[in-house]
From TrEMBL:
Name listed for the protein in its UniProt record: Latexin
GO molecular function, one term: metalloendopeptidase inhibitor activity
InterPro entries found in the cross-reference section: CYSTATIN_LXN (IPR049897), Cystatin_sf (IPR046350), Latexin (IPR009684)
Any GO BP: detection of temperature stimulus involved in sensory perception of pain
Amino acid sequence: MEELHPSHYPARRAATLVQNYINYQVGTPHKVYLFGKVTQATLEDIPGRGHKYHLKFTLGEMVKNEIMVNCEAQVFYPTTGENTVPEVEYTFLGDAGKNTDEEDNKFYESLKSMKKPLKAKKIPDDYGYIPPELKPVRHLAIVASGYVIWQHSSEKTCYNMAWVENVKQVKREDDFIELDYNVLIHNFVSSQDMNPCQIQVLWHPQYGVKVKHYKRQLHRKQ
């Protein structure tokens, strides 16, 4: 087991992957986690299989930015086999943040009751501004992008969603909200590497976020 300096990139990249994974698992239009800092990290080399990172780190909460959450996680990057999607396990150490059911339900009802399906572009706009009513829409894009990032990450990548190019709501006969996003996902390892991605998202406050379909694979660096 090799001790890693908490500020070194391998530990930060693995923790950022966990942050995106957590967002997809438990994020909502009113709860999105941001990477804070790594406080402890070790690297385990598993011969013939891959590398496993053991991490302790903090997360900030984007909507209620005064909240800091402590987290413990393990990330296994397989180096062999057909499936090279990282395996992620995590545990919140203490409070995971405010319950957002009330805000999420209000947002859900507002989308369901719209006379015309939602359409928007450039979130944020060219000046960095996000209208308040579109902030939950952007948060859902971040949550859904967490799935794509998880599926395409490796030890050499560090992805985050940067921008919503456009979004439109798809009318449905059931209780789910469907949003069709075009987003840009940024790989911080290569500062110019911006990956366009179309993501079709299903959301319901009771069942969470599911990625129905996505197109345009991210570049996996080996």
